[in-house]
Specification:
The protein is of the alpha/beta class. Helix content is 50%, strand content 16%. α4 links the parallel β4 and β5. 26% of the residues are buried.
């Protein structure tokens, strides 16, 4: 999980940072903490938006095709914390990669970002496709970021194994 906090003009740190989680064990933290944080931050007046990365990539392409990309980009720029989940499960087209890069790059020093991924940074090129774009993206995402590297079984797998053990004992 990468947490990157942006500072506002007064020098105060927002209540959110860029966060990237790496590893299956982070599933619990990523599914619980951002949802809890989203609720808490919203109560404190922060604007928070949760997206699956493939969904956001699709929405960006649709907005570009319907000539409403600038409007969507403005909406995203007003969000204090953008949470991107599932960054590693699906590959992106060149256009999707470029549009996601633009959103993440635009937020780099201005607003906060949380990214969830199960892949180490060296493998991001596998789903973004372009090595130079990927290197620039990783550079922006990791600059002044908190990176939580978590390995091990996912909480879903643990729960499934526990349920199957109980069923087998009965």
């Amino acid at each position: 999980m990468i947490f990157k906090f942006a500072s506002n003009n007064t020098g105060c740190t927002h209540a959110a940072e860029n966060r990237t989680k790496v590893g299956a064990k982070a599933d619990f933290l990523f599914n619980f903490l951002p949802k809890r944080a989203t609720t808490q931050l919203a109560h404190e007046g922060f604007r928070v938006r949760f997206y699956s990365a493939p969904v956001l990539a699709g929405e960006l392409v649709e907005a570009q095709e319907s000539h409403s990309l600038i409007r969507l980009q403005k909406q995203l720029s007003k969000i204090d914390l953008l949470i991107l989940d599932d960054l590693s499960y699906l590959s992106f087209s060149k256009r999707q990669s470029e549009l996601l890069f633009q959103v993440i790059s635009d937020r780099s020093e201005l607003a906060s970002l949380i990214i969830s991924t199960n892949l180490e940074f060296s493998k991001w090129v596998d789903f973004f496709g372009d090595p130079m774009l990927t290197a620039a993206l990783v550079d922006r995402v990791t600059h002044r970021a908190h990176i939580l590297n978590m390995n091990g079984d996912s909480y879903r797998l643990r729960e499934s194994k526990a349920r199957n053990t109980v069923v087998a004992q009965n």
